[in-house]
From TrEMBL, chain B:
It is a multi-pass membrane protein. SUPFAM superfamilies: MetI-like. One of its GO terms (biological process) is amino acid transport. GO terms for cellular component: ATP-binding cassette (ABC) transporter complex. It comes from the Bacteria. The chain crosses the membrane at residues 20-40, 52-78, 84-104, 189-208. It is found in: Cell inner membrane; Cell membrane. It holds the Pfam family BPD_transp_1. Part of the binding-protein-dependent transport system for glutamine; probably responsible for the translocation of the substrate across the membrane. This is Putative glutamine transport system permease protein GlnP. It comes from Microvirga makkahensis. InterPro entries: AA_ABC_transptr_permease_3TM, ArtM/GltK/GlnP/TcyL/YhdX-like, MetI-like, MetI-like_sf.
């Protein structure tokens, strides 16, 4: 992958252990503007931890992470809270379990960030939220509470909520893994549209079709390391690492 | 053995007056207890902040580990040694409030910890500070879960407030004892006092159940 332009996300040599268990070792990652990086790999391989490091929900003990040229983690040291909060506004996060705010309506879920953090006026934030809800196909649900939505609808609201902060990069942590199979498509559609618009994205997923279709770079992780990275054609058709081959076989034979 | 409830009927207005004082002192104490409990409960969320956590834990340990009566006497008879003379009512509210704050803090802590970790993560990932996330996302959800146990605390506090009669406060218990001191009808008057406390706690329980039902119907509590 090229590293000519200044990357939106640059991860250099990060490592992390939970006790004696090594979850990440010497991981590097560079994401260029408008690039879509898809991270795949067996469960427990460290992909979610790597993604969560990119907005400091996990803090690596070694290495550095830079977001849009600003240090997030430097030599295993997290930046102070004030700068951290400012940097997190640039990084949108979508969780496997949605994590919508159940006491707020769909509209309020989307506006709470811009209103509280960007000090946007109510009318301005509402207009932005309606625009984003239209984009994810949920205009009619603005007044509903999250508890009344399907999983696919919840995840689309979560995407709108993250987009409302107008982030420079979006992180997706297995966004379709908690969904019923028939609801996966609607979420992937929204993500594909985002990618087409040029959103910079890092996506941890088990959706190989999505990776093949949308990714600029596919990274394969195993045992806390990136064992293979390249364009999807190469990774899926001619994997170099035998562990990639066995992982892909296991995943594809399952489908 | 003959029962004579005449003193109870004659003293009924005094008993009712005492009941009002009991309600006032309980409500004021619970309010103080809620403010204290909220602060202490939040302080006890993070053991890594050693000083604040240590102070909060010391407070809860002392209050829960010593008799309420001793705590009340410390305030009422102990403070004057430092030339701090508080009116009896203030002492009662302070003592009961500090006492209930320890229990409320555990309610607060439990309710906050029962909120899914993903809520804090989602709030922080938007860029909110810990305080903003607490205020805007976590506490509004936690408060709803605090209501039923706070109701139980309120009922317990109504009963415990009988102890403030020993601080010369003219509450229900105290008014009853005054009637006994002139009529010598202990059994009848104590039965009457017990009955009035039972009415107070039952009504509070009903009111709380009604409130909870409405919160559930409104979808606020899942």
């Amino acid at each position: 992958m090229s590293s000519t332009a200044s990357p939106i996300v640059a991860v250099r040599g990060i490592g992390k252990s939970f006790g004696a268990h090594r979850v990440l070792s010497d991981v590097a990652l560079s994401v260029q503007p408008s690039q879509v990086v898809v991270i795949i790999g067996p469960s427990g391989s460290g992909k979610s931890t790597l993604l969560r490091c990119c907005n400091a929900l996990e803090v690596p003990q070694e290495g550095s992470i830079t977001i849009c040229g600003t240090d997030l983690v430097k030599n295993g040291q997290l930046i102070p809270d004030r700068e951290l909060n400012a940097l997190r506004m640039q990084v949108g996060m979508v969780f496997q379990s949605f994590n919508l705010f159940p006491h707020l309506t769909v509209l309020e879920n989307v506006t709470v960030g811009p209103r509280q953090l960007r000090k946007m006026s109510k009318s301005h934030a509402d207009a932005l939220a309606h625009e984003l809800l239209a984009k994810v196909g949920l205009s009619q649900k603005a007044a509903a509470y999250p508890a009344t939505l399907s999983g696919g609808q919840k995840q689309r609201v979560a995407i709108a909520r993250a987009l409302a902060m107008q982030p420079r990069v979006m992180l997706f942590d297995e966004p379709t893994s908690a969904l019923d199979p028939e609801l996966v498509g609607e979420v992937l559609q929204v993500m594909k549209a985002l990618a087409r618009e040029g959103m910079t994205m890092i996506v941890v997923t088990h959706e190989m079709g999505f990776a093949r279709e949308v990714a600029d770079v596919v990274m394969v992780m195993d045992a806390g390391q990136i064992i293979e990275a390249g364009p999807p054609e190469q990774v899926f058709s001619a994997p170099q690492n035998p562990r990639t081959r066995s992982f892909l076989q296991a995943v594809i034979s399952r489908d | 053995m003959n029962l004579d409830f005449t003193p109870v009927w004659q003293g009924w207005p005094q008993l009712m007056h005492g009941a009002v004082v009991t309600i006032e002192i309980t409500a004021a104490s619970l309010l103080l207890g809620c403010v204290l409990g909220l602060l202490v409960g939040i302080a006890r969320l993070d053991p890594s902040k050693k000083l604040i956590y240590g102070l909060a834990t010391g407070y809860v340990t002392f209050i829960r580990g010593t008799p309420l009566l001793v705590q009340l006497f410390l305030l009422f008879f102990g403070l004057p040694q430092f030339n701090i003379l508080l009116p009896a009512f203030a002492c009662g509210v302070l003592g009961l409030g500090i006492y209930s704050g320890a229990y409320v803090s555990e309610i607060v802590r439990g309710a906050i910890q029962s909120i899914d970790r993903g809520q804090m993560e989602a709030a922080r990932s938007l860029g909110m500070s810990y305080r903003q996330a607490m205020r805007i996302i976590i506490l509004p959800q936690a408060v709803v879960r605090m209501i039923p146990p706070l109701g139980n605390e309120f009922i317990a506090l109504i009963k415990n407030s009988a102890l403030v009669s020993l601080l010369t406060i003219a509450d229900l218990m105290h008014e009853g004892q005054k009637i006994i001191s002139v009529s010598y009808r202990s059994l009848e008057v104590y039965l009457a006092i017990a009955f009035v406390y039972l009415i107070l706690t039952s009504l509070t329980g009903l009111l709380l159940r009604h409130m909870e039902m409405r919160l559930r119907a409104g979808g606020v509590v899942q």
